[in-house]
Specification:
Elements: E1 12-14, E2 21-23, E3 27-31, H1 35-40, E4 51-55, E5 60-62, E6 66-67, E7 76-78, E8 80-86, E9 102-109, E10 112-113, H2 114-122, H3 128-131, E11 137-139, E12 143-144, H4 145-148, E13 155-160, E14 163-169, H5 177-184, E15 195-197, E16 205-206, E17 212-217, E18 221-227
Parallel strand pairs: 3-15, 5-11, 6-18
Antiparallel strand pairs: 1-2, 3-4, 7-10, 7-16, 8-9, 8-15, 9-12, 13-14, 13-17, 17-18
The protein binds manganese (II) ion.
């Protein structure tokens, strides 16, 4: 049997320091994983276990891109996040062995149509149209854990047009990377190619046409994208 039309391109991210591509399978995202961001969104950070939502794999956008401003929003927000790239799959992974499942880390943006998300929350509807829209996941190259280890602390920073908007520290995550992998793998099977966006620190805010976003995380790397001018 032949395909009716050409299969869509395989979404992939470059692996830093190599000429290899990391093929992306699924993108899972953690909600409210820094206490200061949970508070700015009106939630008590101390009493809620991690919860997850998804973006389509083809939402990734390479660092350096100019991105068309998304449709259907008047309130596009940036969320800078540490991205975990899964290299070894599994289910019901124990926290003590979870980091063995990590291939590497990237700098990502969980771009959010905040007005669509707020509407979904108000009407108790799914979040996809707030979170899983086209080109909603700009990402850097993946830095292999074999090069940088497993970052547990250090700055996570986002600037818009050169002005710092988000400045947090990985050490302030409510759920560690290992704990996040353990929780998620009790809800869905993880497989090589899965990405986990691990939540954003405080300071989320609006992005406008023409804005340039520059993110960096500790030893992981840097990311920059520009939204096309109106
Ligand atoms: Mn997020």
């Amino acid at each position: 049997m032949a395909y009716l039309f050409d299969p869509p391109p395989q979404p992939a991210l470059p692996v830093f320091g190599t000429d290899l591509l990391f093929p992306v399978r699924r993108i899972w995202c953690v909600g409210r994983n820094y206490a200061d961001h949970a508070r700015e969104m009106g939630h008590d950070p101390d009493r809620e276990p991690p919860f997850f939502f998804a973006k389509p794999a083809d939402a990734i956008v390479a660092s350096g891109s100019t991105i068309p401003f998304p449709m259907a929003t008047e309130d596009l927000h940036h969320e800078i996040e540490l991205v975990v790239a899964i290299g070894l799959g599994g289910v019901a992974i124990e926290p003590g062995s979870a980091l063995e499942h990590v291939f590497g880390y990237a700098v990502g943006l969980d771009m959010t149509r905040r007005d669509r998300q707020a509407e979904a929350k108000r009407l108790a509807r799914p979040w996809e149209m707030g979170k899983g829209f086209d080109r909603s996941a700009p990402m850097s190259a993946i830095a292999p854990a074999s090069r940088i280890g497993h970052p547990e602390r250090g700055p996570i920073v986002l600037a818009v047009n050169g002005e710092i908007r988000q400045a947090g520290d990985l050490a302030r995550q409510i759920w560690s990377v290992a704990e996040t992998i353990s929780h998620l793998s009790r809800l869905v099977e993880l497989a090589p190619g899965d990405l986990i966006m691990t939540g954003t620190p405080a300071g989320v805010g609006p992005v406008r046409p023409g804005d340039r976003l520059e993110g960096r995380i500790a030893t992981v790397g840097e990311l920059s994208v520009t939204y096309a001018a109106g």
